[in-house]
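cron nightly-structures :: item 1 of 1
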Amino acid sequence: MSTATAPGRTPVPGAHLARKKRLFFPFFLPAVALYVLFLLVPTVATVVLGFTDWSGAGDTPEFTGLANYGALIASDAFRYSFLNTLLYIVAGGVGTFLLAFLFTMVLREMRGGKLVRAILFFPNIVAPIALGMFFGIILVYRPNRQGLANYLLESVGLDAVKFLAPENITWVVTGCLVWASSGFYITILMAAVDRIPPYLYEDSDIAGATPWQKFRHVTLPLTWDVVGVAGVLWTISAVKIFELVFVLAGPGTYSPPIRSWTLGVFVFDRSFGDQGAPAYGMACAAAVVMILLVSVLVVALRRLMRRDVIQY
C-alpha cells in the first residue's frame, strides 16, 4: 500500500512520528500542571501544616513538631473516628462484597438480569446527603414522631428501637452503606463475568457443578483481578465516609456525637465545627493519617490479592 503525497513531494521517513513528538508536551504539560497545582501542592501543604498550630487566616502557623499527632493519640474523638472508619472498611466491605457475590451468582443465569442490574445500581447515583435524609425519615424515633421502621415493629407487637442513638448509629450507617454501595460493585463484577466464555459454564453444567462450585472454580478465579480493583475502590471510598454519618447521626447543623465520628467528620469538626476554635494543624494531621491509612490498606490489599493472570 502506498502513501498518498502531494505531487512533486517525496515523503520524509519519520515525519509523522516527529509531528506526534512535537504535540506531546503541549498536551502533557497542562495535565501535569493541574495535577501538581490541585493535588501535589495541597498534599504537601497538608503534611507541613500537620506539624504546626494554626487557627486559620490571619495567624502565622507556629511549628509544634509532633504535638498534633500526640494530641490525636490522646483524643477520644480521634480514637472513635479511627475505629469507626476501620469498622466501615471491614464490616461494610464484607457485607457489600458478600451481597455483590450473591447477586453475581444469581444474575448470571437470570432472565432480565441487565434490568435488575440497572435497578440495583440506582442507589449509587443518589447523593449521600439525600440517602441520609431518606434513612433518617425511616429510622427516626421520637416521643411524638416515629419512622416507618418503628411503626412496623410496633404493629407486630415489638418494642420500638432507637436506631439513630449514638450507640447504634455506626451499625445503622454500615447497613445503609451496604445497601447503597452494593449495586456499584455488582455492576463491576458482572462486567467481568460477562467476559468469561460461556463454554466454561456449559462444561460445569455437564459435570454437574452446583452454583456455588461454578462460582468458586470458574467465576471467582477468572474475575479475581477485578475483585482486587473493586476492593481498592471500596477501601478508598470507605476512608472518606462523611455525609451519611453527618446527616444520620447529627441534627444536620453541627457535628454529631463523637461516638459516631469517622476520620472525615473529625477533620471537618477540627476545621469548621462547633467544638471550639478551629485547629487546622490538628485537622491536617488527621488528614495525613487518612492518607497513610488508605495507602497502607491499598498496598496490603494489592499484595494479598496478587495472583497470576489466568488466560482463557
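cron nightly-structures :: done
The mean pLDDT is 84.
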